């Protein structure tokens, strides 16, 4: 009865118009599990780090009650690290450096204690690692959510298509949906992609919100308009974590719950971008989250 | 007790990936008044056409119960005409020709029978013509909605700022909001623009919907995801017409009604793009509109 999240735990070095960081805690697995931790219990992380990672960084994750026994520490290894600079519009960025380090040989080991997995988030990693993870789970999870990106469409499309046949939900952005489907219209793109395997497709549109396709229905979730986006790093991962965290809490998969899950995911993502790295995603209160959900209701609900 | 709409009545020649038209009926005043005609009575149009316009085209407008006694016919004059080609993504277009013709010397004459105007839509025209229209109304309307575009920000910013001081609602797109305010964040842009005069600001984002700012609140209206956008010409004008048409019907200006007006405007715009020119905006039934409104509810409403 657990939510297993596999994804990177990393060092990020970030430059935005608001400032510059040293190497700080980042990674898709980190953001997703922190976000989910506000919505459900029994979160179990699978990842890999180097000996340089430091116990203080790992404590940030553990302090939120997240099980890190599936986070391998490679002796003498260096942690995956990424460095990037955001442009003034905060919608585009340049990657300055990507050092795979221990991630290059990542073999996802699933501890026995993780075999109770009912909800699985396959964070953005090589499709091969995602396939291995699925193969190593002895029981098929109730729900598998897959995150991926254009890079894997370019270099590992065949493997990616194999993963797509085994998952329930795919989350990608609008450009990636167009690339994967070869269709410009997102409605047509969704049709093509849903035929590849997943029952639900979430298309993330950044400041324009997200669309959910499935069960012959469409739902449009707004993004919260913000005066300042401080650091967008991890927003998509926080969204995915909030999304699956909500479903793991309510334990029932249908379009109505999926819609709410999109709103919870969007709320968590809206916190993430308010500070550098994971700073805003630690120490949120129940009241913070309730207020933010209320803001989404006010933003998008009407009564004709 | 009428809704006065001032805007172009024109000939459009349109090329899209779906086909090509001859000179067909178009113009902001046409689209806006047709859209509004499904929501309220007593619509009165101010515009100018040439002798070439033809009674059949005018009949399309009159047949919807729209008063055209304020549409001047210039003897021997040629009607304003525009020609454009949409790119494959339908989000961008090239203007192939703009022939102002009778629009070049347009002096907006307001018939006495229009002086009962309570709702006024100032369609996209020179700010000077918009100012003249306002000056010629003997009684201040209950609500003035202004549409404009980047072109007037480039060539007539001072006049535009004068109009802004006299209107209640401004509708522009996101790029125009950024240009007018000098702010990238739409939240900051809205703050700057609302300080220029209007009490409400609507930022249109095309396939991403629209944002309404005012009364220290924000509302996000979705756009209906469509498999095929056949011809986007007139979508923004249909939106504006549906928006003010709804408010003229309910006769009460507050944020709650403004939210609904955005949804009605979006619904009318979603019809407009389904066929060339005004083809889809004539002959809609009450049932068509109710079904479309239901689609907007299904698309965006949730229950946490």
UniProtKB/TrEMBL annotation, chains A, B:
Highest taxon of source: Bacteria
Any GO MF annotation of the entry: kinase activity
Phosphoprotein listed as a keyword: no
Domain Carbohydrate kinase PfkB: 20-279
Keyword Ribosomal protein tagged: no
Organism: Sphingobacterium detergens
Protein name, entry field: Sugar/nucleoside kinase (Ribokinase family)
GO cellular component terms attached to this protein's record: cytosol
Signal peptide: none
Xref: Gene3D superfamilies: 3.40.1190.20
UniProtKB keywords: Kinase, Transferase
